[in-house]
Design a protein that fits this description.
The N terminus is likely disordered. Helix 5 runs parallel beside helix 6 and helix 10 packs across helix 14. The strands form 3 sheets. This protein has a 7-stranded mixed β-sheet, sandwiched between helices. It is of the alpha/beta class. The protein contains 15 helices and 12 strands. Bound molecules: nicotinamide-adenine-dinucleotide (NAD). The site of nicotinamide-adenine-dinucleotide has 31 residues, from helix 2, helix 4, helix 5, helix 6 and helix 11.
Length: 390
Protein backbone atom coordinates (compact mmCIF):
# COMPACT_ATOMS: atom_id res chain seq x y z
CA UNK A 1 0.00 0.00 0.00
CA UNK A 2 1.01 3.57 -0.68
CA UNK A 3 1.80 5.79 2.25
CA UNK A 4 -0.02 9.03 2.83
CA UNK A 5 2.20 12.09 2.75
CA UNK A 6 1.78 13.94 6.03
CA UNK A 7 -0.22 16.82 4.64
CA UNK A 8 -2.19 17.93 7.64
CA UNK A 9 -0.67 20.90 9.42
CA UNK A 10 -1.02 21.40 13.13
CA UNK A 11 -3.86 20.40 15.38
CA UNK A 12 -5.92 21.58 18.31
CA UNK A 13 -7.23 25.11 18.07
CA UNK A 14 -8.05 26.14 14.51
CA UNK A 15 -5.25 28.31 13.10
CA UNK A 16 -7.23 30.62 10.91
CA UNK A 17 -7.10 34.22 9.94
CA UNK A 18 -9.95 36.04 11.56
CA UNK A 19 -11.23 38.92 9.48
CA UNK A 20 -14.63 40.25 10.48
CA UNK A 21 -17.30 39.08 8.08
CA UNK A 22 -20.54 41.00 7.90
CA UNK A 23 -21.89 43.44 10.45
CA UNK A 24 -21.60 42.64 14.14
CA UNK A 25 -23.33 44.64 16.86
CA UNK A 26 -20.86 45.87 19.47
CA UNK A 27 -23.07 44.64 22.29
CA UNK A 28 -23.80 41.30 20.66
CA UNK A 29 -22.63 38.27 22.60
CA UNK A 30 -20.20 36.53 20.28
CA UNK A 31 -21.41 33.00 19.68
CA UNK A 32 -18.84 32.01 17.10
CA UNK A 33 -15.85 33.90 15.79
CA UNK A 34 -15.79 34.76 12.12
CA UNK A 35 -13.06 32.78 10.43
CA UNK A 36 -11.82 32.62 6.87
CA UNK A 37 -9.80 29.66 5.69
CA UNK A 38 -7.99 30.21 2.40
CA UNK A 39 -7.79 27.27 0.00
CA UNK A 40 -5.23 27.17 -2.82
CA UNK A 41 -5.65 24.18 -5.09
CA UNK A 42 -4.00 24.25 -8.50
CA UNK A 43 -5.07 27.56 -10.07
CA UNK A 44 -8.00 27.96 -7.69
CA UNK A 45 -7.90 30.37 -4.72
CA UNK A 46 -10.92 30.80 -2.51
CA UNK A 47 -12.01 31.58 1.00
CA UNK A 48 -14.20 29.41 3.18
CA UNK A 49 -15.96 31.87 5.50
CA UNK A 50 -17.29 30.44 8.74
CA UNK A 51 -19.51 32.40 11.10
CA UNK A 52 -22.78 32.09 13.00
CA UNK A 53 -26.04 33.86 13.78
CA UNK A 54 -26.81 34.65 10.15
CA UNK A 55 -23.62 36.65 9.63
CA UNK A 56 -22.12 34.23 7.09
CA UNK A 57 -25.43 34.31 5.18
CA UNK A 58 -25.20 38.11 5.12
CA UNK A 59 -21.61 37.87 3.91
CA UNK A 60 -22.74 35.48 1.16
CA UNK A 61 -25.41 37.97 0.04
CA UNK A 62 -22.85 40.78 -0.03
CA UNK A 63 -20.41 38.64 -2.03
CA UNK A 64 -23.07 37.54 -4.53
CA UNK A 65 -24.23 41.12 -5.02
CA UNK A 66 -20.83 41.97 -6.47
CA UNK A 67 -19.82 38.85 -8.34
CA UNK A 68 -19.80 38.40 -12.14
CA UNK A 69 -22.32 39.84 -14.58
CA UNK A 70 -25.30 37.84 -13.23
CA UNK A 71 -26.17 35.36 -10.50
CA UNK A 72 -28.64 32.49 -10.38
CA UNK A 73 -29.45 30.38 -7.36
CA UNK A 74 -30.16 26.68 -6.92
CA UNK A 75 -31.64 26.16 -3.48
CA UNK A 76 -33.05 23.44 -1.28
CA UNK A 77 -36.73 24.41 -0.93
CA UNK A 78 -36.81 23.18 2.68
CA UNK A 79 -33.89 25.40 3.64
CA UNK A 80 -35.51 28.42 2.01
CA UNK A 81 -38.72 27.69 3.90
CA UNK A 82 -36.91 27.35 7.23
CA UNK A 83 -34.39 30.17 6.89
CA UNK A 84 -35.81 32.45 4.22
CA UNK A 85 -34.63 32.90 0.66
CA UNK A 86 -30.91 33.51 0.36
CA UNK A 87 -31.45 36.04 -2.41
CA UNK A 88 -34.43 37.94 -3.70
CA UNK A 89 -34.86 39.32 -7.23
CA UNK A 90 -32.60 36.55 -8.46
CA UNK A 91 -33.51 33.67 -10.79
CA UNK A 92 -33.99 30.76 -8.41
CA UNK A 93 -34.51 27.05 -8.92
CA UNK A 94 -36.10 25.32 -5.92
CA UNK A 95 -35.34 21.64 -5.53
CA UNK A 96 -36.12 19.07 -2.85
CA UNK A 97 -32.77 18.20 -1.29
CA UNK A 98 -31.72 14.60 -0.99
CA UNK A 99 -29.95 11.99 -3.07
CA UNK A 100 -32.81 12.15 -5.62
CA UNK A 101 -31.45 15.41 -7.08
CA UNK A 102 -28.11 13.83 -7.99
CA UNK A 103 -29.65 12.41 -11.17
CA UNK A 104 -29.06 13.05 -14.86
CA UNK A 105 -32.53 14.43 -15.49
CA UNK A 106 -32.22 16.95 -12.63
CA UNK A 107 -28.79 17.98 -13.94
CA UNK A 108 -30.53 18.67 -17.24
CA UNK A 109 -33.08 20.85 -15.44
CA UNK A 110 -30.33 22.88 -13.77
CA UNK A 111 -28.52 23.39 -17.11
CA UNK A 112 -31.79 24.50 -18.75
CA UNK A 113 -32.32 26.84 -15.81
CA UNK A 114 -28.86 28.39 -16.41
CA UNK A 115 -29.84 29.00 -20.02
CA UNK A 116 -33.23 30.47 -19.09
CA UNK A 117 -31.50 32.74 -16.58
CA UNK A 118 -29.26 33.92 -19.48
CA UNK A 119 -26.06 33.19 -17.57
CA UNK A 120 -22.80 33.90 -19.36
CA UNK A 121 -19.35 32.52 -18.65
CA UNK A 122 -18.80 35.58 -16.44
CA UNK A 123 -21.85 34.75 -14.30
CA UNK A 124 -22.06 32.83 -11.04
CA UNK A 125 -24.28 29.98 -9.96
CA UNK A 126 -24.89 29.75 -6.22
CA UNK A 127 -25.95 26.70 -4.22
CA UNK A 128 -27.92 27.00 -0.96
CA UNK A 129 -28.49 23.62 0.63
CA UNK A 130 -26.78 20.41 1.65
CA UNK A 131 -24.18 18.30 -0.11
CA UNK A 132 -26.60 16.96 -2.69
CA UNK A 133 -27.60 20.42 -3.90
CA UNK A 134 -23.94 21.51 -3.80
CA UNK A 135 -22.64 18.51 -5.75
CA UNK A 136 -25.34 18.94 -8.40
CA UNK A 137 -24.94 22.72 -8.69
CA UNK A 138 -21.15 22.45 -8.85
CA UNK A 139 -21.43 19.92 -11.67
CA UNK A 140 -23.87 22.12 -13.60
CA UNK A 141 -21.59 25.14 -13.09
CA UNK A 142 -18.62 23.19 -14.47
CA UNK A 143 -20.59 22.17 -17.58
CA UNK A 144 -22.66 25.20 -18.54
CA UNK A 145 -20.81 27.05 -21.30
CA UNK A 146 -17.77 24.97 -20.28
CA UNK A 147 -17.69 26.37 -16.81
CA UNK A 148 -18.73 29.33 -14.71
CA UNK A 149 -18.16 30.42 -11.13
CA UNK A 150 -19.96 28.50 -8.39
CA UNK A 151 -20.46 29.84 -4.86
CA UNK A 152 -21.54 27.40 -2.16
CA UNK A 153 -23.64 28.29 0.87
CA UNK A 154 -23.76 24.88 2.57
CA UNK A 155 -26.54 24.30 5.10
CA UNK A 156 -25.85 20.83 6.50
CA UNK A 157 -23.01 19.90 8.81
CA UNK A 158 -21.80 17.41 6.22
CA UNK A 159 -21.68 20.04 3.50
CA UNK A 160 -19.95 22.59 5.77
CA UNK A 161 -17.24 20.23 7.01
CA UNK A 162 -16.65 18.39 3.79
CA UNK A 163 -18.54 18.52 0.50
CA UNK A 164 -18.49 22.29 -0.16
CA UNK A 165 -14.68 22.37 -0.04
CA UNK A 166 -12.32 20.72 -2.50
CA UNK A 167 -14.13 21.09 -5.81
CA UNK A 168 -15.56 17.61 -6.31
CA UNK A 169 -18.93 17.59 -8.06
CA UNK A 170 -21.04 14.58 -8.98
CA UNK A 171 -24.30 12.87 -9.73
CA UNK A 172 -25.06 9.20 -9.20
CA UNK A 173 -25.62 6.65 -11.95
CA UNK A 174 -27.61 3.45 -11.59
CA UNK A 175 -24.28 1.61 -11.55
CA UNK A 176 -22.97 3.52 -8.57
CA UNK A 177 -22.57 6.55 -6.39
CA UNK A 178 -20.94 9.74 -7.75
CA UNK A 179 -19.95 7.98 -11.00
CA UNK A 180 -20.34 11.11 -13.18
CA UNK A 181 -18.61 14.25 -11.97
CA UNK A 182 -15.92 16.85 -12.38
CA UNK A 183 -13.39 18.81 -10.35
CA UNK A 184 -14.63 22.41 -10.17
CA UNK A 185 -13.55 24.55 -7.23
CA UNK A 186 -15.96 27.17 -5.90
CA UNK A 187 -15.17 30.88 -6.03
CA UNK A 188 -16.15 31.17 -2.36
CA UNK A 189 -17.89 29.20 0.39
CA UNK A 190 -20.00 30.63 3.24
CA UNK A 191 -20.79 28.39 6.24
CA UNK A 192 -23.30 29.75 8.76
CA UNK A 193 -23.50 27.50 11.80
CA UNK A 194 -26.87 28.95 12.86
CA UNK A 195 -28.69 27.08 10.08
CA UNK A 196 -27.57 23.77 11.58
CA UNK A 197 -30.13 24.29 14.39
CA UNK A 198 -32.95 23.06 12.13
CA UNK A 199 -31.26 19.91 10.82
CA UNK A 200 -33.04 16.65 11.58
CA UNK A 201 -31.08 14.56 14.08
CA UNK A 202 -30.44 12.03 11.32
CA UNK A 203 -28.80 14.68 9.13
CA UNK A 204 -26.77 16.10 12.02
CA UNK A 205 -25.30 12.70 12.85
CA UNK A 206 -24.68 12.04 9.16
CA UNK A 207 -22.39 15.10 9.31
CA UNK A 208 -20.70 13.62 12.39
CA UNK A 209 -19.72 10.61 10.25
CA UNK A 210 -17.56 12.84 8.03
CA UNK A 211 -16.27 14.75 11.08
CA UNK A 212 -15.00 11.51 12.64
CA UNK A 213 -13.40 10.52 9.33
CA UNK A 214 -11.61 13.86 9.05
CA UNK A 215 -10.29 13.81 12.61
CA UNK A 216 -9.06 10.23 12.13
CA UNK A 217 -7.01 11.50 9.20
CA UNK A 218 -5.68 14.45 11.21
CA UNK A 219 -3.95 13.08 14.30
CA UNK A 220 -4.42 11.75 17.80
CA UNK A 221 -4.77 15.21 19.38
CA UNK A 222 -7.57 16.18 16.98
CA UNK A 223 -9.32 12.90 17.60
CA UNK A 224 -9.04 13.40 21.38
CA UNK A 225 -10.35 16.99 21.02
CA UNK A 226 -13.40 15.62 19.20
CA UNK A 227 -13.90 12.91 21.83
CA UNK A 228 -13.90 15.62 24.50
CA UNK A 229 -16.65 17.65 22.79
CA UNK A 230 -19.24 15.08 21.80
CA UNK A 231 -21.81 16.29 24.36
CA UNK A 232 -21.57 19.89 23.17
CA UNK A 233 -21.83 18.78 19.56
CA UNK A 234 -24.92 16.68 20.18
CA UNK A 235 -26.44 19.75 21.93
CA UNK A 236 -25.61 21.74 18.75
CA UNK A 237 -23.58 24.22 20.74
CA UNK A 238 -22.65 26.79 18.10
CA UNK A 239 -19.15 27.35 19.47
CA UNK A 240 -18.40 23.65 19.31
CA UNK A 241 -19.93 23.35 15.83
CA UNK A 242 -17.99 26.39 14.58
CA UNK A 243 -14.71 24.96 15.89
CA UNK A 244 -15.38 21.58 14.33
CA UNK A 245 -16.35 23.08 10.97
CA UNK A 246 -13.20 25.23 10.97
CA UNK A 247 -10.87 22.39 11.94
CA UNK A 248 -12.39 19.97 9.39
CA UNK A 249 -12.09 22.58 6.64
CA UNK A 250 -8.45 23.17 7.61
CA UNK A 251 -7.65 19.47 7.50
CA UNK A 252 -9.44 19.03 4.19
CA UNK A 253 -7.73 22.15 2.83
CA UNK A 254 -4.31 20.72 3.69
CA UNK A 255 -5.07 17.40 2.00
CA UNK A 256 -6.62 19.01 -1.09
CA UNK A 257 -3.78 21.52 -1.50
CA UNK A 258 -1.23 18.70 -1.38
CA UNK A 259 -3.05 16.81 -4.14
CA UNK A 260 -5.82 18.78 -5.90
CA UNK A 261 -6.53 16.10 -8.56
CA UNK A 262 -6.70 13.17 -6.16
CA UNK A 263 -3.80 11.30 -7.71
CA UNK A 264 -2.17 10.55 -4.36
CA UNK A 265 -2.70 11.59 -0.74
CA UNK A 266 -6.14 13.15 -1.33
CA UNK A 267 -7.46 9.62 -1.72
CA UNK A 268 -7.14 9.37 2.07
CA UNK A 269 -10.39 11.37 2.26
CA UNK A 270 -12.11 8.22 1.05
CA UNK A 271 -11.51 6.52 4.39
CA UNK A 272 -14.70 4.55 5.13
CA UNK A 273 -16.17 5.55 1.76
CA UNK A 274 -15.52 2.43 -0.30
CA UNK A 275 -17.57 0.47 2.21
CA UNK A 276 -19.98 3.38 2.68
CA UNK A 277 -20.73 3.76 -1.03
CA UNK A 278 -21.40 0.02 -1.32
CA UNK A 279 -23.84 0.27 1.61
CA UNK A 280 -25.63 3.27 0.06
CA UNK A 281 -25.93 1.52 -3.28
CA UNK A 282 -27.22 -1.81 -1.93
CA UNK A 283 -29.66 -0.09 0.45
CA UNK A 284 -30.83 2.11 -2.45
CA UNK A 285 -29.50 5.68 -2.77
CA UNK A 286 -31.16 7.95 -0.24
CA UNK A 287 -32.14 5.14 2.16
CA UNK A 288 -29.11 5.41 4.44
CA UNK A 289 -27.72 8.97 4.78
CA UNK A 290 -24.23 9.30 3.30
CA UNK A 291 -22.42 10.11 6.55
CA UNK A 292 -24.17 7.28 8.40
CA UNK A 293 -23.02 4.81 5.74
CA UNK A 294 -19.51 6.30 6.02
CA UNK A 295 -19.60 5.87 9.81
CA UNK A 296 -20.32 2.16 9.49
CA UNK A 297 -17.62 2.09 6.79
CA UNK A 298 -15.13 3.58 9.27
CA UNK A 299 -15.77 0.71 11.68
CA UNK A 300 -15.32 -1.82 8.86
CA UNK A 301 -12.14 -0.08 7.69
CA UNK A 302 -10.79 -0.22 11.25
CA UNK A 303 -11.53 -3.97 11.46
CA UNK A 304 -9.89 -4.49 8.08
CA UNK A 305 -6.88 -2.45 9.25
CA UNK A 306 -6.42 -4.70 12.28
CA UNK A 307 -6.49 -7.72 10.00
CA UNK A 308 -4.57 -6.51 6.93
CA UNK A 309 -2.14 -4.00 8.49
CA UNK A 310 -1.81 -5.35 12.03
CA UNK A 311 -3.21 -2.07 13.34
CA UNK A 312 -3.93 -1.98 17.06
CA UNK A 313 -7.42 -3.54 17.42
CA UNK A 314 -8.14 -1.01 20.18
CA UNK A 315 -8.37 1.66 17.48
CA UNK A 316 -11.52 -0.03 16.14
CA UNK A 317 -13.01 -0.01 19.66
CA UNK A 318 -12.09 3.66 20.11
CA UNK A 319 -13.71 4.60 16.78
CA UNK A 320 -16.87 2.68 17.61
CA UNK A 321 -17.11 4.29 21.05
CA UNK A 322 -16.84 7.74 19.46
CA UNK A 323 -19.40 6.94 16.76
CA UNK A 324 -21.75 5.61 19.39
CA UNK A 325 -21.45 8.77 21.53
CA UNK A 326 -22.35 10.78 18.45
CA UNK A 327 -25.48 8.64 17.96
CA UNK A 328 -24.14 6.72 14.95
CA UNK A 329 -24.56 2.99 14.25
CA UNK A 330 -21.31 1.11 14.71
CA UNK A 331 -21.91 -2.12 12.81
CA UNK A 332 -23.66 -3.45 9.72
CA UNK A 333 -26.15 -5.30 11.92
CA UNK A 334 -27.06 -2.12 13.81
CA UNK A 335 -27.55 -0.39 10.46
CA UNK A 336 -29.64 -3.28 9.11
CA UNK A 337 -31.88 -3.08 12.20
CA UNK A 338 -32.23 0.69 12.25
CA UNK A 339 -33.03 1.16 8.56
CA UNK A 340 -34.80 -2.16 7.96
CA UNK A 341 -32.44 -3.03 5.11
CA UNK A 342 -31.11 -6.52 4.42
CA UNK A 343 -27.71 -5.51 2.98
CA UNK A 344 -26.85 -9.08 1.88
CA UNK A 345 -23.11 -9.77 2.05
CA UNK A 346 -22.98 -10.95 -1.59
CA UNK A 347 -24.65 -7.75 -2.78
CA UNK A 348 -22.17 -5.63 -0.82
CA UNK A 349 -19.22 -7.51 -2.35
CA UNK A 350 -20.71 -7.09 -5.82
CA UNK A 351 -21.26 -3.35 -5.19
CA UNK A 352 -17.59 -2.97 -4.24
CA UNK A 353 -16.64 -4.11 -7.74
CA UNK A 354 -18.12 -0.84 -9.05
CA UNK A 355 -15.98 1.33 -6.82
CA UNK A 356 -14.61 4.07 -9.04
CA UNK A 357 -11.24 4.41 -7.33
CA UNK A 358 -9.75 0.99 -8.04
CA UNK A 359 -9.02 -0.78 -11.32
CA UNK A 360 -12.02 -2.44 -12.96
CA UNK A 361 -13.53 -4.97 -10.58
CA UNK A 362 -10.72 -4.50 -8.03
CA UNK A 363 -11.76 -2.22 -5.20
CA UNK A 364 -9.06 -0.47 -3.21
CA UNK A 365 -9.43 0.64 0.37
CA UNK A 366 -8.05 3.36 2.60
CA UNK A 367 -7.02 1.80 5.89
CA UNK A 368 -5.63 3.24 9.09
CA UNK A 369 -2.68 2.12 11.19
CA UNK A 370 -3.27 4.88 13.74
CA UNK A 371 -4.92 8.33 13.80
CA UNK A 372 -3.15 10.41 11.16
CA UNK A 373 -1.46 7.36 9.63
CA UNK A 374 -3.49 6.11 6.67
CA UNK A 375 -2.53 3.58 4.01
CA UNK A 376 -3.92 4.03 0.49
CA UNK A 377 -4.81 1.63 -2.27
CA UNK A 378 -4.99 -1.48 -0.11
CA UNK A 379 -6.69 -4.46 -1.80
CA UNK A 380 -8.57 -6.79 0.56
CA UNK A 381 -9.00 -10.52 0.17
CA UNK A 382 -12.44 -11.82 -0.59
CA UNK A 383 -12.40 -14.02 2.51
CA UNK A 384 -11.83 -10.97 4.72
CA UNK A 385 -14.66 -9.08 3.01
CA UNK A 386 -16.96 -12.05 3.54
CA UNK A 387 -16.09 -12.03 7.27
CA UNK A 388 -16.62 -8.28 7.57
CA UNK A 389 -20.02 -8.40 5.87
CA UNK A 390 -21.35 -11.50 7.67
P1 LIG B 1 -28.60 16.55 1.66
O1 LIG B 1 -28.18 17.64 0.77
O2 LIG B 1 -29.54 15.54 1.10
O3 LIG B 1 -29.22 17.15 2.99
C1 LIG B 1 -29.81 16.28 3.93
C2 LIG B 1 -31.22 16.71 4.28
O4 LIG B 1 -31.15 17.88 5.06
C3 LIG B 1 -32.11 17.05 3.09
O5 LIG B 1 -33.39 16.50 3.34
C4 LIG B 1 -32.19 18.58 3.12
O6 LIG B 1 -33.41 19.05 2.59
C5 LIG B 1 -32.06 18.87 4.57
N1 LIG B 1 -31.48 20.16 4.95
C6 LIG B 1 -30.43 20.81 4.39
N2 LIG B 1 -30.10 21.88 5.14
C7 LIG B 1 -30.98 21.93 6.16
C8 LIG B 1 -31.15 22.78 7.29
N3 LIG B 1 -30.30 23.79 7.51
N4 LIG B 1 -32.17 22.54 8.14
C9 LIG B 1 -33.00 21.50 7.94
N5 LIG B 1 -32.87 20.62 6.93
C10 LIG B 1 -31.86 20.84 6.04
O7 LIG B 1 -27.36 15.68 2.19
P2 LIG B 1 -25.94 16.06 2.84
O8 LIG B 1 -25.79 15.12 3.94
O9 LIG B 1 -25.80 17.50 3.07
O10 LIG B 1 -24.92 15.70 1.65
C11 LIG B 1 -24.76 14.36 1.22
C12 LIG B 1 -24.15 14.36 -0.17
O11 LIG B 1 -22.86 14.96 -0.13
C13 LIG B 1 -23.97 12.97 -0.72
O12 LIG B 1 -24.54 12.88 -2.01
C14 LIG B 1 -22.47 12.80 -0.82
O13 LIG B 1 -22.08 11.97 -1.89
C15 LIG B 1 -22.01 14.21 -0.99
N6 LIG B 1 -20.63 14.45 -0.60
C16 LIG B 1 -19.84 15.12 -1.47
C17 LIG B 1 -18.53 15.40 -1.14
C18 LIG B 1 -17.68 16.20 -2.08
O14 LIG B 1 -16.47 16.31 -1.86
N7 LIG B 1 -18.24 16.78 -3.11
C19 LIG B 1 -18.02 15.01 0.10
C20 LIG B 1 -18.85 14.34 0.98
C21 LIG B 1 -20.16 14.06 0.62
Amino acid sequence: PEEVAQAVRGHGAPQTRAPRIGARDAGDACVTDARTIEVRAGDARYGVHIDGRGRALEAARAHLAGVGDAVALVQDARVAELHGALLTDTPTLDLDGGEGVKELDVLGRVLDFCATASLSRQSALASYGGGTIGDLTGLAASLFKRGLDVVHVPTTLLAQVDSSVGGKTAINLRAGKNLAGTFHHPGAVFCDTSVLATLDDADLRSGFGEVVKTMLLADDADLAALEARTDALIRRDEDALGDVVARCVEVKRDVVEADPDERGPRRALNLGHTFGHAIERVAGFGTVPHGVAVAVGLGLAADASADALDADPELADRIRALLSRLGLPTSLDALRDEYGVALPADDLREALRHDKKGAVGQPEFVLLRAPGDAALGVPLEDALLARLFA
